[in-house]
Known about the structure:
Layout: E1 6-7, E2 21-26, E3 36-41, H1 52-67, E4 73-78, H2 106-116, E5 121-125, E6 129-130, H3 132-135, E7 142-146, E8 151-152, H4 166-174, H5 176-185, E9 188-189, E10 202-204, H6 210-224, H7 227-238, H8 244-258, H9 262-272, H10 283-286, E11 304-305
Parallel strand pairs: 1-11, 3-4, 4-5, 5-7, 6-8, 7-10
Antiparallel strand pairs: 2-3, 8-9
Amino acid sequence: MPPTPTIDVPATYEALGLSHIRISHHPLGAPTATPVVIVTLNRPEKHNAFTPQMADSLTLAFNMFHVDPRVKTVVLTGAGKMFCAGMDLDIGFGDGEGRAADFRDIGGRVSLAMHRCHKPTIVALQGSAVGVGMTMTLPAAIRICHEKSKYGFVFARRGLTIESCASYFLPRLVGFSRAMHLITTGGVYPPSTKHFGDLFTEVLPDASQVLPRALELAQDVAENVSPLASSMSRALMWEGGDSPEAAHLLESRVFHHMIGQRDYKEGVNSFFEKRKPRFETDPREGSCPDYPWWPELNISREYSASKNSKL
Length: 311
């Protein structure tokens, strides 16, 4: 078996020079990585249109967060008035040459990195988003948006099919009927339309409220939620049993593992002692022995922190 590739984790994310995104600590300017980090799509002059460089940067960032025990929650937002205008059509997707079997869509790489990251992502859509600007948010745990902005899955209107693993995530989030309407019309809608269902868990009247609210939620999660319990619970939701009985057996197995972990004891003790918990278990080390319990296609290798990481 080939060795597991490693990844360098920096002492500070704010010094990274990643293309087309910016990573900030919360609070801003903290000298080392904080429990909450902010990832900002940073092409405001192009309405944060998606590029291969942005995809590479986002994929690398989520891989780093995955192996960095200092990071508890990730907030993803956009610079300027728009969250993301979709793919930068001046760059395009290539010419369709080469073998289809060798092609991997760049949005899908970002979605899988976010999905596989043990740390939950909260998306602050402070402005409008279409295309990959929408599909790449689907693996996130929470999406908060602005009520006067517009959102849509416009692929069919550009002669394209959905990507970024949206055929898996979208119908599970909004239901097949709503998902079919969204991808069939390719329409752009306000977040209040019934076609989105509960895709956006909060819709705020002022764009300036979106990021602060996402950070408020992220801080609460980082301070009060076990990263291990959160990661295992989200995995149970996405990769659970295919019947009530199968779900019961799987949940029981994972629950049995969890009650033997330090985080359970800390959660109970902090409750009785009326204090904030101090959850310290790294999800990569505390996951149940058979995690992942589902067959996972080998499209990329798992990363671990390298010896050069500044942890």
